Amino acid sequence: GAVVSQHPSRVICKSGTSVKIECRSLDFQATTMFWYRQFPKKSLMLMATSNEGSKATYEQGVEKDKFLINHASLTLSTLTVTSAHPEDSSFYICSASLGGQVLGKLFFGSGTQLSVL
Amino acid sequence: ELKVEQNPLFLSMQEGKNYTIYCNYSTTSDRLYWYRQDPGKSLESLFVLLSNGAVKQEGRLMASLDTKARLSTLHITAAVHDLSATYFCAVDIKGNSGGSNYKLTFGKGTLLTVNP
Fold first, then answer.
1. How far apart are the CA of A18 and the nearest CA of chain B, in angstroms?
2. Burial level of A116, CB count in 10 A (0-12/13-18/19+)?
3. Most A CBs within 10 Å, among B100, B102, B104, B112, to test the A interface
4. What is d(CA B61, CA A15) in angstroms, rounded to the nearest whole number?
5. Are B108 and A42 within 8 A, CB to CB?
6. Residue of chain B nearest A114, judged by CA positions
7. Which helix (H) or strand (E) element contains residue A21?
8. CA geometry: angle B105, B109, B114, nearest 5 deg
9. What is the distance between the alpha carbons of residues A60 and A54, in angstroms, rounded to a whole number?
10. Residue A38 CB-half CA count within 13 A
11. How far is CA B92 from CA A76, B14, B68, in A?
C-alpha cells in the first residue's frame, strides 16, 4: 500500500533554532500534502495544505512566517519551524492523498515529536 | 465552520463486551474517516465511508454512516485488549467544485481501554 515517510521521528532543539521536518510519499505522487499538529492527548488540528509548485494554504491562526512549508516536488513537502519556542513543542503529522487513484484514501506519516528546550 | 463531536471521550470496557462510539458532525459531508492511534504513533486508517448507508467491517470493528443524521458509529464487538487505543473520526470539507479536498476536521478522539 501507499507509504508516507516522515523524518525525523523525534527532535529536540534549543529555543530560537529552526527545525525542518520532511514528508515524502514513497510510491506515489502527491500534488497535495497536509500538515497537522497534535498536542498531548488532544485531537489533530490542520495547520496548512501544501501544494506542489505553489504557496501553501494556511489555516486561520497559523503563522505562515513561523511555519514555513515548501512542496518542491511531487513526492516531498517540508515544514520548517522557525525560531522555535517551547510552546511549539508538539507532535507534527503530515498526510498525503492518492486522490482519484484510491478514492478517499489519506495516508499519514509516522509523525515528528518536537521538543523545544 | 465544521464541527465534529465524538462520544464518549473515554471508554473503559471489559474484554468480550460490545460498545459503540458515536461521531456527529455539523455540516454536509459525504466522506467520513475512522482512524486508530496508538500512544506516540501516527494514525492508522481503519475505514473510509463514502455514502449514506455505508457499512464497513474489519474484524471486531464495524463502521456505519448516516449522512442525513450526520452521524457515524464505530461498533466494537467482543472487545479484546489489543483494541486499546485512541479512535478518531474525521470529516472532510468539500472543495469549491463540490468534491473532497481532503482537509479533515477531527473529533477529539475516544480513548478506549479494554481490560482483561
1. 23
2. buried
3. B102
4. 44
5. yes
6. B40
7. strand A19-25
8. 155
9. 19
10. 25
11. 23, 33, 16
Coil, helix or strand at residue A53: coil
For residues A36 and A90, the answer to whether their CB atoms sit within 8 Å is no
Per-residue pLDDT of chain A (117 residues; tens, 9 = 90+): 668 999 999 999 999 999 999 999 988 888 789 999 998 888 899 999 888 888 899 999 999 999 999 988 889 999 999 999 999 999 999 998 765 544 556 789 999 999 999
Which residues of chain B lie closer than 8 angstroms to A49, CB-CB?
101, 103
**A100 shares contact with chain B (CB less than 8 Å):** no
Q: What is the dihedral of CA B7, B11, B15, B16, to 10 degrees?
A: -30
Distance from CA of B40 to the nearest CA of A (A): 8
Beta strands in chain B (DSSP E): 4-7, 10-14, 19-25, 32-37, 43-49, 55-58, 61-66, 71-76, 85-94, 100-106, 110-115
- Binary contact (B109, A111; C-beta < 8 A): no
